[in-house]
Amino acid sequence: MDNPVVIIGAGLSGLRAASLLAAEGIECRVLEARDRIGGRVMTERVENRPDLGKFDLGPTWFWPAYERKIAEVAEEMKLDTFVQYNQGAMLVERSREEAPAHNMLPADAGMESMRFTGGVQALVDAVATTLPDEMVEFGKRVTRIRMEVDEKITVEAEKDNGEKDSIAASSVILALPPRLAATIEFSPDLPSSLVTGLESKPTWMAGQAKAIAVYDRPFWREEGLSGFAMSWAGPLQEIHDASPEKGSGALFGFFGMPAESRRELGEDEVLKLVENQLVRLFGSRAREMETILYKDWTEDAETAVAADSVPLQDFPVYGPPGDLGTWEKKVYFAGTEADPQFGGHLEGALQAAERVVRDLRR
């Protein structure tokens, strides 16, 4: 190849694709609009309290019993993992006026889920270490991809300082959400049916927000609670134990509250509601949090578009896009939404990356 493969997006899928291509001696450039790697993987520490551990504001788990690729990569990278805590009773909150019910889950209630020591960022960072230095270029938002009559491809990006960058490419891998891919201008145009398909494919997690209450220890375990709760009263609809393997404690929740309602209330009011709910469920000690971490993914311009604020009614149908027309064998789609079996999961991001690399080598 005279020119590099240009990969748009430095999330798990884009980094894995770059790693596989680089291992074969194929030159790549990874363009990332953010100032960090990971995409929707976002692992944070508590400010001024690194001793409390790391917490995932994006994806959290994987299931090695049937997600074989991520288990394989974790072993390949020698990453430490631990089992998600699920011992004790789950809580069920039907209204704010009645005490939550305690239900014991059977030991075989579900497949064992695993977490990464140090958060999912440990996986992303490990994959990134396999890349040549400076392969990932930050602060470059791709705005246009054009192909000349002689089939030469140019990727145009805008830097954070407003300057433009033009990059010659042998081919392009779009490792970003389909709806964001649809905002890139193509010349010649992508087939209209393909664009419609991209725009109609919801971005996984983009309509969600996540709150994590961090404590000095997982006190609920002392009371025989698993940290798992379901609520019809909200604002959190589903709550889980997010504690590190040792030391501090944490509870995280997914919101049942729509994005529009979160936006109208504002972050401070939303988090007050979260705190009150945790007290209802876990008692007065739930108010003694060290901090509460919050990420509303609908407010992240590198993840969500306006259409992602609409709550999902069903699990989306994911998989590779349709006919690429004149862009066939020039443009490839990675990212978790491009995988038909594990779309929305970390496993899907890895599977999509491997499929793209196989297709590109043909």
Automatic annotation (TrEMBL):
It holds the Pfam family Amino_oxidase. InterPro entries: Amino_oxidase (IPR002937), FAD/NAD-bd_sf (IPR036188), Flavin_MAO (IPR050703). GO terms for molecular function: oxidoreductase activity. Residues 112-360 form the Amine oxidase domain. PANTHER family: AMINE OXIDASE, AMINE OXIDASE [FLAVIN-CONTAINING] B. Belongs to the flavin monoamine oxidase family. This is Monoamine oxidase. It comes from Salimicrobium halophilum.
